[in-house]
Amino acid sequence: MADELPSRVVASIAFIGRSGGTVKTLAGFKKGHHTLPDAANAVTNAFLGKICETELASEAERLFQEARSGLGYKRKDIVLSVTSPSAVLTAKDFTVELTYALDEADTTRYTVVATMQELRDLDVARGEAFSRIFAGRFTEISFGLKKGVRVEAVIDAIEALDGEGGIGVVYPSDYHDCAIRVEGVDAEVRCTGASMEVVFPRGAAPAELIDAFLAVRDAFQISKVLSGLIG
After folding, report:
1. What is residue 212's predicted lDDT score, i.e. its pLDDT?
2. Could you count the other beta carbons within 10 Å of the beta carbon of residue 173?
3. What's residue 2's pLDDT?
4. Does domain 137-231 match CATH 3.30.310?
5. How far apart are CA 134 and CA 207, in angstroms?
6. Which phi and psi angles does 59 have, rounded to 5°?
7. Given this model, what pLDDT does residue 231 score?
8. Which of 11, 39, 57, 220 is most buried, taking the most CB atoms under 10 A from its CB?
9. What are the angstrom distances between the C-alpha of 226 and each of 5, 154, 155, 186?
10. Count of H helices and E strands in the chain?
């Protein structure tokens, strides 16, 4: 796995997916008794944690059963812990956390963030069963960079290419981050200096996201700065 994912320059790797719905459709929301939150804070998210218990427990249990049977795990290989608004599935090959939270932009809605970390065996991730279990689940790979990088340096390196290699970049005036596009790759690379995210327009299983990342890494070999960024 180290040959494909850049452990030399990366401190942590996570696969992230997001879904959601309207608060009033959650099983624990009682019309006429509950009111919709008008802000996202500790109190209202605690309220969400109570009314989403049914959905969270059901989704977490389904994932547990699919992983247990599909990957042939024994009892000691997989553990599920549910403490609403989060659930953590810890398996011998990976860890997945599901977390419910209010949508800060529209508190009548909630989001569910699925985060896979500690993926230990790429052969397992590339297997048919694994891809079936997590099909459409994740939309980005997030890399925490060990040393970090200056966003300005990344921008300058890409602009110095002047379009060579089919790599382009857009950025705000404060250089807080930048968005990189690679010709032929259906993903956007977002660099913040401390981290890098490879963001995809649709959900996929980890193996498909890794393949797209490898295409980005191959394109980045054209520049010393870029190749050093992701190995």
Report:
1. 81
2. 5
3. 42
4. yes
5. 10
6. -65, -40
7. 59
8. 220
9. 15, 7, 10, 18
10. 7, 10
Separation between Cα atoms, residue 123 and residue 156, nearest integer Å: 37
Q: Distance from CA of residue 174 to its chain's centroid?
A: 25
**Which burial class, exposed, middle or buried, applies to 221 when counting CB atoms under 10 A from its CB (0-12, 13-18, 19+)?**
exposed
Give the other-Cβ count within 10 Å of 35's Cβ. 10
Tell me whether residue 15 is exposed, middle or buried, using C-beta atoms within 10 angstroms of its C-beta: 0 to 12, 13 to 18, 19 or more: buried
In angstroms, what CA-CA distances link 201 with 53, 150, 188, 189, 209?
A: 29, 26, 9, 12, 11
Would you give per-residue pLDDT tens digits along the chain (231 residues)? 445 565 554 557 899 999 999 999 999 999 989 999 999 999 999 999 999 999 999 999 999 999 999 999 999 999 999 999 999 999 999 999 999 999 999 999 999 999 999 988 878 888 999 999 999 999 999 888 878 889 999 999 999 998 888 999 999 999 999 999 998 888 888 999 888 888 988 999 998 888 888 888 888 888 888 877 765
| Location of each CATH 3.30.310 domain in the chain | 137-231
Q: How far apart are CA 27 and CA 102, in angstroms?
A: 16
